[in-house]
Amino acid sequence: MTETTQAVAQFPRLNERAPEFKARTTHGVKQLSDYEGKWLVLFSHPADFTPVCTTEFIAFAKHYPDFQKLNCDLLGLSIDSYYSHVAWVRNIKEKFGVEIQFPIIEDLSMDVARAYGMIHPGAADTSAVRATFIIDPKGILRAMVYYPMTNGRSIPEFLRLVTALQTSDKNKIATPEGWQPGDKVIVPPPQDADAAEARMGEGYECTDWYFCTKSL
Fold it and tell me: How far apart are CA 51 and CA 26, in angstroms?
């Protein structure tokens, strides 16, 4: 196995069990099993006391009640110490008037960051990139998104994505680009010729046999 293949193999994969972890955080020791029965957005940032990361944490904090309404917790991470995290959280509250209510993982060993593929040598050897992982109540990794060091994430998009995943699970449907609650959803395409022949008469809004939508 080549070095490149080994690096790829270490990255977590969608629809498989998320990597286990147990780590010190600003809210005590946390592990993946603590979030069983809930959705979890685990996200990394390059460093405390940096401007782009500060804007992201403020946005996550402002949307924290919205995530909670979806039975979803937030968990941050960077390769900084517990003391740095605490100082930064206090600074955000003092300077920006925003309280960070969710925990942040101390990952000086980089064990969690490596397990989740947050270390990209092309970006930095000692900092986690802006990675975001959505984990379902069974501990299955459902989505992951990576951003460069220079550009902040859109937190409403992760809120939208958690909502879309929950809607798909509940109703056995897919959602189109930019879907928002109340929009039409996509009916899964037929799986054989007979089903395709019948699809146009099943009462859905169909453009063709493979593309049908409905309201929930």
Answer: 20
- How is residue 21 written in tokens? 């972890």
Q: What percent of the chain has pLDDT over 70?
A: 93
**Is this structure's pTM higher than 0.85?**
yes
Here the tokens at position 175 are: 């959602």
Start-to-end CA span in the chain (Å): 48
Contact 74, 43 (CB under 8 A): yes
Q: pLDDT for 18-41, tens place per residue?
A: 999 999 999 999 999 999 999 999
d(CA 137, CA 41): 11
212 is catalytic: no
Structure tokens at 120: 């990209």
Q: How many CB atoms lie within 10 A of CB 194?
A: 9
What's the longest Cα–Cα distance across the chain? Answer: 64
DSSP assignment letter at 124:
-
Long-range (24+ apart) CB contacts under 8 A made by 108-115 are: 108/79, 108/80, 108/81, 110/79, 111/21, 111/23, 112/19, 112/21, 112/23, 112/77, 113/44, 113/77, 113/79, 114/10, 115/10, 115/12, 115/19, 115/20, 115/21
How high is the pLDDT of residue 139? Answer: 98
Return the closest-CA partner of residue 23 out of 87, 88, 114, 107: 107
Q: Kindly list the structural domains of the chain, giving each domain's residue range(s) and its CATH number in brackets, ordered by start.
A: 3-153 (3.40.30.10), 172-214 (3.30.1020.10)
Catalytic residue among 53, 72, 206, 212: 53
